[in-house]
Each structure stands twice: as structure tokens, then as C-alpha cells.
Specification:
This protein is an all-alpha fold and about 350 residues long. It contains 16 helices and no strands. Helix 1 packs across helix 16.
Length: about 350
């Protein structure tokens, strides 16, 4: 496969992921909505799907170039700095932030967050940058033949145990006995070779799936593909049950589930969602998702948070809050994603700044 060739179902998956990313921010869902809570729960599986999609592409490169890799790291870092500046400028012009020189330097270049500016969405790019730091190791192992891939599988098993299995078992035991009788943190620490390991797991899972996609398609074809929507449904129900046990309600109630990426249910949901696209079950809408959203995800990712911040300061936001319904949040997500996608396409045609959105 040529590295520059785009894979439409990967772009389509990224398109759906970014829509749900926007869906999860600036939420317009009634507190008593169970359906809205189910859609919010689905967001937790679609964020790791982003990493799986990235892994599907990253490890198809036939050669590794250190110069190009370092340039990619610097581009992502400088992109973060640029967008942090744009966020600061937006809040400053709205009269909502004042920073000293050293606060500004720490905020911009050391990626230190400040209370006055909501940059919560940028955690993803910070984690992605962290994951890319170990990319050379994983690439050489992945491309190093059978032994290299066996080492990676062993690493993935370690990460699964530390980041997904142990936390899920601990949560289950705590709810089973009504109190935390067993403390598995020390056991989990034995399995933790790296920070942000769970996202490395998803990256590598995407790489292996894409590498062996033909074999997987042969094994899971025809009616067997029902396993993918079943995984999505089971994953959503599992995460909703976890949230119910944690908060005592099946409804949204404006509450986010903590540590949502470290449950086995999240892995099941993520695998199901990736499988839906890889198996062609979304083929009728692949092109639309890919063209409108999937090829402009970086610009949408950075810009939607600014758009939603400005929106939250407006009278229109208060009106929506007073008259909202379940579908309104999806309408908001699609409209904001479309707006940001359009701006991204325009910026891509400007040579000096196109790198900040691509």
C-alpha cells in the first residue's frame, strides 16, 4: 500500500469519531434523557477508535525516516502551541482572561493549562504526541518480522492487563462487595511499562487489524459480521451499566463517567465500531463521512472547542438550554463539525498555515 493513498473507510471512521467528539462537548441533552446518555456513552468508544484508525495508517509505511519523524513531532508540538495561542486570543478578546508574561509562556510552550481558558480537549493531541515518541520502537518491531510482532503482542497483553483488565476487575469487585476490599494498584503497576499505555494498545490494535484485514475479513464474513454491531451494543450497555452503578441513574444528568477509557466494555465497543467500518457495513455513507469530515479532523478537533466556547457565551445558547431535546445535540454536533470542516478546507489552501490543520 502506498503511504499517500487514503483508505476511505478509515477516513469515514474518523469522520464519525469527530462528529461524536463535538457531540460530547457543549452538551445540549436533557438531564433525564436515557437515549442521550447512550449516545454520550458511545463517545467513549469512538475516541479510542481514532487511535485505531491512526494505527491502521502509521504502520503501513515501508520505511522509517528519523528526519521525517522528528519533523512530524515538531509539527504536532508547534500546532499545539499555535492553537493554544488562538484559544488564548479568543478568551482575551472576550475579556475572560488575563495572563502575566510567565503564565503566558508556561501556557503556550510548556502546555500548562490555566483555569480561565478551557483547553480540556487538547489532552488527545498531548497523548498522541506521547504515543508518537515510542512510535520508532513499535514500527521497527512491527516491521521486523514474526519475532518483532510477537514482542509487540506481548507488550499489548501487558498493557491490556494493566490498563483495562485490572481496573475493570477492581471496579467489579468493589461493586460486588459494596466497598473496596481489594486494592489491585500495586499489581497493575507491575504491568505498566509506559504512560498512556492504553492508547498505545489501541494504536497497535489498529495496526495489526489493518495488516491482517484480509484474513479477518475471511474469518468474519457474511452473517458473521453481526458480531460487530453486537459488540457496539454490548459495549454501550456495559458502559451505561458502569455509569449506573457509579451514579445511580440510567439518564444523562450532566455527569461524565470517570476513567471511561480503562474499562473492558470500552474495548468491546471500540473493536465493534472499527469492525463495522472495516467490514464494509457503513459503505453506503463512507464517502460522505470521509469527504465532509474524515479528511478534515484535525481542523475540526481544534476549532470546534473555540466555536462552542463562543456559542456558550451567546444568548442563543441560553435559548437552546431552555428548549433543548435529544436530537438538538446531534444537530449541534453536525452543524459545528460542518462549519469547522469548511474553515479547515479554506486553511488548507493557505501555504503558510496549512500545517496547523493537516
Amino acid at each position: 500500500m502506498e503511504t499517500k493513498k487514503r483508505v476511505e473507510y478509515i477516513d469515514a471512521l474518523k469522520g464519525l469519531c469527530i462528529i461524536f467528539t463535538v457531540y460530547a462537548h457543549g452538551v445540549l441533552i436533557p438531564d433525564d434523557s436515557i437515549i442521550g446518555n447512550a449516545f454520550m456513552t458511545m463517545c467513549w468508544g469512538l475516541v479510542p477508535s481514532f487511535f485505531m484508525a491512526s494505527g491502521s495508517v502509521l504502520y503501513q509505511k515501508k520505511e522509517f525516516r528519523w528526519k521525517k519523524h522528528i519533523q512530524q513531532l515538531m509539527t504536532i508540538y508547534l500546532g499545539l502551541v499555535f492553537w493554544r495561542f488562538i484559544y488564548w486570543l479568543t478568551y482575551y478578546l472576550a475579556g475572560r482572561v488575563q495572563l502575566s508574561k510567565f503564565e503566558a509562556l508556561n501556557y503556550l510552550f510548556l502546555l500548562h493549562d490555566v483555569e480561565q481558558i478551557d483547553t480540556g480537549v487538547m489532552w488527545y493531541m498531548s497523548v498522541y504526541l506521547s504515543v508518537l515518541l515510542v512510535y520508532p520502537i513499535t514500527w521497527f518491531l512491527f516491521r521486523g518480522g514474526r519475532q518483532g510482532r510477537q514482542i509487540l503482542v506481548a507488550l499489548m497483553i501487558l498493557i491490556f492487563c494493566a490498563e483495562l483488565l485490572v481496573p475493570s476487575v477492581q471496579w467489579g469487585l468493589s461493586n460486588l462487595f459494596g466497598t473496596q476490599l481489594f486494592y489491585l494498584d500495586s499489581i497493575a503497576s507491575i504491568f505498566k511499562p509506559l504512560n498512556n499505555g492504553v492508547m498505545i494498545l489501541y494504536i497497535m490494535l489498529g495496526a495489526f487489524w489493518f495488516e491482517y484485514r484480509n484474513k479477518i475479513e475471511d474469518k468474519v464474513s457474511g452473517k458473521k459480521r453481526i458480531v460487530y454491531p453486537v459488540c457496539v451494543v454490548c459495549g454501550v450497555i456495559g458502559l451505561m451499566f458502569i455509569k449506573y452503578k457509579d451514579f445511580g441513574s440510567w439518564a444523562w444528568e450532566g455527569k461524565y463517567e470517570m476513567y471511561q477509557y480503562v474499562h473492558v466494555a470500552t474495548l468491546i465497543l471500540t473493536v465493534g465500531m472499527y469492525g463495522l467500518f472495516a467490514s464494509g457495513l457503513f459503505r453506503p455513507v463512507e464517502h460522505l463521512l470521509a469527504r465532509l469530515f474524515g479528511r478534515n479532523t484535525l481542523g475540526i478537533y481544534y476549532m470546534h472547542y473555540i466555536v462552542l466556547a463562543v456559542f456558550s457565551w451567546s444568548v442563543l445558547y441560553q435559548t437552546c438550554m431552555e428548549h433543548y431535546f435529544v436530537g438538538m445535540n446531534m444537530v449541534k454536533a453536525v452543524l459545528v463539525a460542518l462549519l469547522c470542516s469548511g474553515i479547515t478546507i479554506l486553511i488548507k489552501n493557505i501555504p503558510l498555515i496549512r500545517k496547523v490543520v493537516s
